[in-house]
Amino acid sequence: MRPLIALAALLGLLACTEPPPDAYVTTSATATAGEPAGTDARNEACQAQPGRAAPADRPVLRAREVFCGGWSQPAARVIEMSGSTTAADLDSIAASGLWRAWLDQRVNCGAPTRTTIAQGVEARLLACTRRAGGWPHVALVVAGSSGPVVADGVATSLPVIERLATGQTTATGGAGGRSAALELAVARLSAGAFGASDVGRYEQLMALGRDLNQTENFAAAEDAYRAALAVQERVLGRDNPNTATAMLLLAVNLSNQKRLADAGVLLDRAAALAPAAADPATPARLLHYRGLHALNAGDAAAAIGLLLQAETAYGALIPASSATRDAEAISLVSDPVVQSAVLGLAEAKRNRAVALVRAGRASEAQAVIDESRQVLRRAGLEPAMMVGRAMRSEAGADIRLGRTEVAAQMLERAAGRFGAAAPGERPEAVTLFLAGQQRIRAGRRTEALAAFRAGAAILRARQIGLAVPLVVAYLDALDQEANASPGFAPALRAEMFGAAQLAQRSSTARYVQQASARLGVAEGNPAVQGAVRGLQDADRELRELFAERDASGGQNTALDDRIAAAQQRRASAESEVSAAAPGYRQLLLASVDADSVARVLGRGEALLTMLLGPREGFVMAVRDGRVDARRIPLGEEAVGALVTRLRQSSELGAAGLPRFDTAAAYELHQLLVTPLAGMIDGAENLVVAPDGPLLAVPFGMLLARPANPDALGGADWLIRHHAIVHVPSPQTLVTLRAAGTGSTAPMPYIGFGDFVPPSAAQFARAFPADRCGRDARLATGLGRLPGTRAEVLTSQQMLGATPDRAILGTAFTFPSLRHQPLNQFRVVHLATHALLPGELSCLTEPSIVASPPAGAASADTAFLKASEVLDLKMDADLVILSACNTGGAGGEGGGEALSGLARAFFYAGARGLMVTHWAVDDAAAALTVADTLRRQQSGATSSAALRGAQMLILDEAGRNLPAIFAHPYYWAPFVLIGDGRRGGQPGPRAAAASPSRL
């Protein structure tokens, strides 16, 4: 089972952790239409319109809903009833009856207080707290002119409630008179602190977080929940118990991204708050999420114990009568608290079954899954999505017990359930791939390929990726079929190439999700912002329609037609995004086929790509319209070990320069290049799309033949055979080359370097001691890079740029960079440190470091994060990042982060990125950058120019340069990422420029 399945199982629960807005109020598309109702306690304008009546013991004469401050949900509801209004009547209505029972399901109220409202009208005031979010809430029972009036709403709506309850309007000057109720409630109103729009913003963010979590977009869900928590903490206070729900949801999304330390801090904070929260399910939810956190941390035994405790806590909230499907039980389950507890209990049981499987107790899991299904069935809550997840968990137990055929059949049934609930979406695709994986293990290749191909069609249509092991199983099936049917081998090898593009690794997916989410809220291009938000809205609409169909049960032709129309709207929204932001495709995990790659490859070019599974992998090549693919016998861990050896022998350490590991360099060549030598040999330009740990390897340093570590100058490096370009994915190359012919910027160059590090105090404020104290200490060790001043000045002079295009020292800040017209320069040079996730645990994105602005209190403003690069506007053929350790140490923390950084620069308008994989020697860096730019200015392509500079160092080592310069530490760290064909010639508007030469 995939690690993320445990949290994905929460989808039904997360959708109900708080009552949906229409459980309390009626969602209205015409919320702004109606009669003016004056202003609330925060002076937000309000309007009233006809609404839906709540349950009541007396006939309802009129029901109205109040909308304030632009909030799309009603801030209050006012219901006029007929009947007597004696003090006993008011006491009875306020203390018991249908209306009070309905109110108690949604808010937690104290005892009624006798009071009066405007004009001395008798009333009963209830001070309440909303279970969803903990917002101050009021309820009122009033002796109206025609009978009792009951009302409730956000605390700040009390003046409007009084006005409507007494029949006053803004035209008559408001309610008038002294309101004892308002005086009693004034402490809770916090009129200066929040209003209906704040509550609306919170609920909007929580709903967005739930939607994103349901699509397993945990990074973007994190952003939504973090923002919701910030709204609550600003209004209610950091230690308010009702912040626990948003805190828990944020924690579990962090945990699912394997950011376990951050999640643990939040879970501990929530533990102190949960017992006093207005939502009685919060303590159970805390135990549940602690169990999921333990499962994510690999501690299945601890998860089992915590989930058992959560089941007990949820069960205590479910009345005994809800265990049978009689009328009383169905009424109870309509209570949001009971419904949340029922769903929580079912999911906690199912999650415990997953934990039992991982603990090696698969034989016990089936009974627990049956219990989970029974909980839902008895309560009349058995949506297809939850049934599909239960079936998938059951199949996981069968797999562990060796029942491959039974598991495959169960997975196919689960895929059918997912297809009924949300056809063409990720859950269906994942389950089809899981079924295919079991079919291929059983030797049923035909059935396996049918399942894989059906799942792949969904992934391509939705432009989403899948976990690597599942995609490797698809490649395995295709490879077996190609070997068994030689006549069909060319087509099957081409299908293998396309299938490999469906794989995604978690760090890349996380960055893409964060970047896409950021574009929807950024303050940059309004057209892009609107288009991305439109796409997000279309996705949400479709998910809501799927949920509606799931809840309705059975066939519903009208609903199916609405879903088809919504799918068409989403397709149109995707087209609008692509039109508004052509670079947006760089942020998608879209796959491309071999034909698309072949069309963009030039004469003398070949593309090499690979995919590494747990135990084996595949390498593939495209050249001159042909495709080939070969199995390799090592998996990700074994290849990662070779990469580690290679990197450790390439970088300067505490003991000096190590002896280069020629054996590892040769073995990697034998694994990755030699099997496809017939396709690659003679290619002038080799485009490499690495995978996993290989993202941290400059491929030019691989060895085509064994070499003597003491005579590296004459070694048969791969760089001697090809100019090499690296790309995050084949799709990146296709997108870049479809974007146009090159920069039309009028100016040749702008460079930034010689930054002044933030102070220890500034770092301490950027990295809080309770979570990130170690980061602050490590970051304080970032030293100044004086060699970058000469590097930038030399480049500026060589390219004929004016002196003011070298921005150095304290002038090199990110505000100054953002104020530069970067889209006017063909080359943008950033010579500074870069930091990667993993190096600093609290740094979640790759970041570039500059000088802090004058007077900055914190070092935060000295970091340019990858997601912030999206806001830059460039038209550069080349961005140079001659920074320390841009390539990182491989795998999730290094190469994957570099891939995300490259995607960000490509989105911003760069066509090529020249980066360093480790801390560089000043002299070698200056020589490499200068000679690359010199060759570009002479007409060489970017890839040929970099290769020429590296060959110069190799050829001159032992002649005009020290012999040690033949060691890869000096010549290999620079790599080119992107479109290596771009030249460095002056643009059409700068043809008269006469750059100097070395």
Descriptors:
single chain; 998 residues; alpha/beta; Nucleotidyltransferase, domain 5; nine-stranded antiparallel beta sheet; six-stranded mixed beta sheet; disordered C terminus; CHAT_dom; TPR-like_helical_dom_sf; CHAT domain-containing protein
Describe it.
This protein is α/β, with parallel strands linked by helices and 998 residues long. Among the domains are: 22-193, no CATH class; 509-587; 594-731, Nucleotidyltransferase, domain 5 (2-Layer Sandwich); 745-983, 3-Layer(aba) Sandwich (Rossmann fold), CATH 3.40.50. The strands form 5 sheets. Strands 1, 2, 3, 4, 5, 6, 7, 8 and 9 form a 9-stranded antiparallel sheet that branches. A 6-stranded mixed sheet has the order 18-17-19-23-24-25, sandwiched between helices. A 5-stranded mixed sheet has the order 14-13-12-15-16. Helix 21 runs antiparallel to helix 22, helix 27 (636-648) runs antiparallel to helix 28 (662-672) and helix 31 runs antiparallel to helix 32. The longest helix has 27 residues, at 526-552. The chain is globular. The model is unreliable at 1-32, 170-176, 187-192, 322-333, 887-893 and 984-998 (pLDDT under 50). Residues 664-979 form the CHAT domain.
Question: Which helices and strands occur, and which strands form pairs?
Answer:
Elements: H1 5-8, H2 11-14, H3 21-24, E1 35-39, E2 45-50, E3 60-68, E4 76-81, H4 87-95, H5 98-106, E5 107-109, E6 113-116, E7 122-130, E8 136-143, E9 148-154, H6 158-165, H7 180-189, H8 196-214, H9 218-236, H10 244-256, H11 260-273, H12 282-296, H13 300-315, H14 327-333, H15 336-358, H16 362-379, H17 384-400, H18 404-421, H19 426-441, H20 445-462, E10 466-467, H21 468-484, H22 489-500, E11 503-504, H23 506-521, H24 526-552, H25 557-580, H26 594-600, E12 605-612, E13 617-623, E14 626-632, H27 636-648, H28 662-672, H29 677-680, E15 685-689, E16 723-726, H30 730-737, E17 747-753, H31 760-766, H32 769-780, H33 787-798, E18 806-808, H34 814-819, E19 825-831, E20 834-835, E21 847-849, E22 863-865, H35 866-869, E23 878-881, H36 895-908, E24 912-916, H37 922-937, H38 942-956, H39 968-971, E25 974-978
Parallel strand pairs: 10-11, 12-15, 15-16, 17-18, 17-19, 19-23, 23-24
Antiparallel strand pairs: 1-2, 2-3, 3-4, 4-9, 5-7, 6-7, 7-8, 8-9, 12-13, 13-14, 20-21, 21-22, 24-25
Helix pairs in contact: 8-9, 9-10, 9-23, 10-11, 10-12, 11-12, 12-13, 12-15, 13-15, 15-16, 15-17, 16-17, 17-18, 18-19, 19-20, 19-21, 20-21, 21-22, 23-24, 23-36, 24-25, 27-28, 31-32, 33-37, 37-38
InterPro entries: CHAT_dom, TPR-like_helical_dom_sf
Protein name: CHAT domain-containing protein
Domain CHAT: 664-979
